Amino acid sequence: MTALPQPTAGVFDGRTHLLPVRVYYEDTDFTGLVYHANYLRYFERGRSDFLRLVSIGHADLLEQAEPLAFVVTHMDIRFRGAARIDDALVVRTLYEAIKGPRLIIRQTLVRGDEVLTQAEVEAACIDLSGRPRRPPPELKSALAPLLLP
């Protein structure tokens, strides 16, 4: 049996993570355009795969002596254009800063050179009781070279 390639977690272009995504029928509404809530899914994949590529997996955070997770606390999203069925898109993700338990993230969804959607995201690191916690040192050190100066 031929070994299948592993799913991609994207690549880095400098400090920006690039994740290719394809629009499938299930992503669209009856008009063939991407349903608005699915843009949030694309952005979640971008944030998760950014962390995966710097060796910070969500499962790893949950398996620590003091388990941690992330929650989105704020998102400002701007819809500028519509993605359509079969479009090849790229989620661009930039982790800008860590401020206490908060991570400040900027994301853009593009089709070629056309910006379709932009999001400014604030996520918080929390313990399993839901209380804010500063990210662990290994997460901070993995992100440090990728944060804005």
In summary, what is this structure?
By secondary structure, the chain is an alpha+beta fold. Helix content is 20%, strand content 39%.
Report, as a whole number of angstroms, the end-to-end distance: 48 Å
The sequence of SSEs as H and E is EEHHEEEEH
Cα-atom radius of gyration: 16 Å
**Which CATH class applies here?**
Alpha Beta
Kindly report the name of the CATH homologous superfamily: Hotdog Thioesterase
Uncertain residue ranges:
none
Strand content: 35-45%
What's the helix count? Answer: 3
Biggest beta-sheet profile: 6 strands, antiparallel
Overall structural class, as computed from helix and strand content, comes to alpha+beta
CATH fold descriptor: Thiol Ester Dehydrase, Chain A
Question: So, CATH architecture?
Answer: Roll
Helix fraction bin: 10-25%
Secondary structure: number of strands: 6
- Tally of individual domains: 1
**Quick check: average pLDDT?**
94
Strand order of the largest sheet: 1-2-4-5-6-3
Large-scale geometry:
globular
Describe the structure.
With 149 residues, the protein is an alpha+beta fold. The protein has a single domain, classed as Thiol Ester Dehydrase, Chain A. Helix content is 20%, strand content 39%. It is built from three helices and six strands, in the order E-E-H-H-E-E-E-E-H. The chain has helices at residues 36-53, 58-62, 137-143, and strands at 11-13, 16-22, 68-79, 88-99, 102-111, 114-127. It has a six-stranded antiparallel sheet with strand order 1-2-4-5-6-3. Strand 4 (88-99) and strand 5 form a beta hairpin. The longest helix is centred in the N-terminal third of the chain and has 18 residues, at 36-53. It is globular and about 45 Å long.
